[in-house]
Design a protein that fits this description.
It is a single chain. By secondary structure, the chain is mainly beta. Helices cover 2% and strands 52% of the residues. The protein has one helix and 15 strands. The two termini are 30 Å apart.
Length: 193
């Protein structure tokens, strides 16, 4: 489900039985290999289409053990197949998260996200988290300087790349069993500090 092919990293979700599940996929994580405090991360990717796909490029706090959402999550790119072309960026922490309906989020339309490569970017420092696509910022979250519940983003964080199948968001309108396999292709990941 994860391999290099023609110079690209491929993350592929497949319809195949595995341990009482109907689908397989992969999640690549950098924890313990790449953990960063502040900087800029750029991921050039072409993401899958299809009902039930839920690709993501995201970050979690490198704390051990991780307490979610308290230790922080930055969603650089999320896309659900039932809403093709609508790309989301979000942050989650104890004060702001989707479970309690307070998450900070934004979206932008990228109609060709599944046919063209786009550069998904996060840039963060002690004052803000900014997310953009192809050098166009469309989401910003500012540090209100109150407490850890509102700003855990001084933690080191690690990167995750994955395709989920279904799930509480990606599967809200079902999973089309006829579209598989589906893949996310990564041309490069660049980290600047």
């Amino acid at each position: 489900n994860a391999r290099v092919e023609n110079g690209h990293l491929i993350i592929e979700a497949r319809k195949e039985k595995w341990e009482n599940r109907e689908y397989t996929s992969a999640r690549l994580i950098t924890k313990g290999k790449g953990d960063w405090k502040y900087g800029r991360i750029e991921v050039s990717a072409r993401i899958p289409s299809g009902l039930g796909t839920w690709p993501a490029i995201w970050m979690l706090g490198s704390t051990t053990p991780l307490k979610w959402p308290d230790d922080g999550e930055i969603d650089i790119m999320e896309h659900v197949g039932y809403d093709h072309g609508k790309v989301h960026a979000s942050i989650h922490c104890k004060k702001y998260n989707h479970v309690i309906g307070t998450q900070k989020t934004a979206f932008t339309m990228v109609p060709d996200c599944s046919t063209q490569f786009h550069v998904y970017t996060v840039e963060w420092n002690a004052d803000s988290v900014k997310v953009g696509i192809d050098k166009n910022e469309y989401f910003r979250f500012a540090n209100d300087k109150t407490n850890y519940e509102a700003w855990p983003f001084d933690n080191k964080m690690y990167l995750l790349l994955n395709i989920a199948v279904g799930g509480n968001w990606g599967g809200q309108k079902g999973v089309d069993s006829t579209v598989w396999p589906r893949r996310m292709e990564i041309d490069y990941v660049r980290v600047y500090q």
